[in-house]
Amino acid sequence: MASTPLNLSGMFENSPSAAPRSRERVENIPVDLIDSHPRNTTYVTETMLDPAFRESVAAFGVLQPVLVIPNDNAAGRYYLLAGHKRLLGSRLCGRSYIPAIIRKGLPPGLEGIYITDTNLQYGVQNMLPSEKCRTLWEQHQSLKEFRQYCRTHAEEKQELELGGKVFKFGHLEKTREALATAYGLTPTDVQRFLGLHTLSPVLFECVDRRTLAISAATYLAQLPKEWQLEAARWIPDKKISAYQAQQILFLYQNGGNEKGIKDIVQNTQNDSRHKITGSYKISRRMLKSYSPYLAAMNDDEIASILKAALTLYFESHPLENSEQRGYNISEEAV
């Protein structure tokens, strides 16, 4: 008989509706004894709480228990794994206690999986790039850790539910693809964000403000910290093209001196050729194969239609596509 997959989603309801019966013991514990887990990567704020949710918590309390583990470093205290909104709502409404399921003896990696899956279910597209990076990196490492544990413990369930999708551990060899499938990303997106985990905080702030494109940050993240800090000194308003970032990386890889970063930035920042992220030529023959209506149009008419279509597309996907294509304020595309 097939075993039931390890299901995380039941712990992550945003609504305080009645929880299904659990075979696990539920205890009421003081909210002041629950701390944020050290591996938590995102933080819930008051503005993220729905007014109806707060009204319900104020009137009835939290009905769906949060998930905690004992804090081994502080007797009598707990780390929160799931239920960040419920805990914050209880605190804001003046609730002294909250129902909780206390888990003990979790296998290696499973704590990180619990935490990051609930964070990602809040909506990966609504996260800042730094939050995406930290969360995906933490879950990627936790999955690898838990998968390794399961290889030597056959009694553990060999299926795991992430983002509402069930994966067999035997199929998690390509963890990046599994994360992409679970959370509606592409493997390229996942790879890009995982690669940013070594980016310095000062540069990550620029990525979050969208003054530094992810395409450029990907190159800078491969530099040692001292080179990244030197780059941050000379990048005007922390704006730099992917071409410039690539040249800085080449300088490092070829044994150059970090003082050369200034020359790369100043010698290319006014060169319009390096402000072009990419240009694409589409043959008339290819256009005809897609639409017979374009065959009778001249080049200007076709260019106008394509420009309008691209403008409409990028306006409807402003954040995702600016990240994927590498555009920022200092770059232009043709």
Detailed description of the structure:
The protein has 334 residues and is an alpha/beta fold. It folds into 2 domains: 1-196, Conserved hypothetical protein from pyrococcus furiosus pfu- 392566-001, ParB domain; 199-334, no CATH class. It has 14 helices and 8 strands. It has a 5-stranded mixed beta sheet. Strands 1-7-8 form a 3-stranded mixed beta sheet. Strand 4 and strand 5 (78-82) form a beta hairpin. The chain is globular, with a radius of gyration of 24 Å.
Summary, kept brief:
Helix 1 packs across helix 2. Helix content is 45%, strand content 10%.
Helix/strand layout:
Layout: E1 6-7, E2 26-30, E3 34-36, H1 51-60, E4 66-70, E5 78-82, H2 84-92, E6 97-102, H3 110-121, H4 129-151, E7 159-162, E8 165-168, H5 175-183, H6 187-195, H7 201-208, H8 214-220, H9 225-234, H10 242-253, H11 261-268, H12 284-290, H13 299-316, H14 318-325
Parallel strand pairs: 1-7, 3-5, 4-6
Antiparallel strand pairs: 2-6, 4-5, 7-8
Helix pairs in contact: 1-2, 3-4, 4-6, 5-6, 8-10, 9-11, 10-11
Protein name: ParB-like N-terminal domain-containing protein
Biased composition (Polar residues): 1-17
Domain ParB-like N-terminal: 27-121
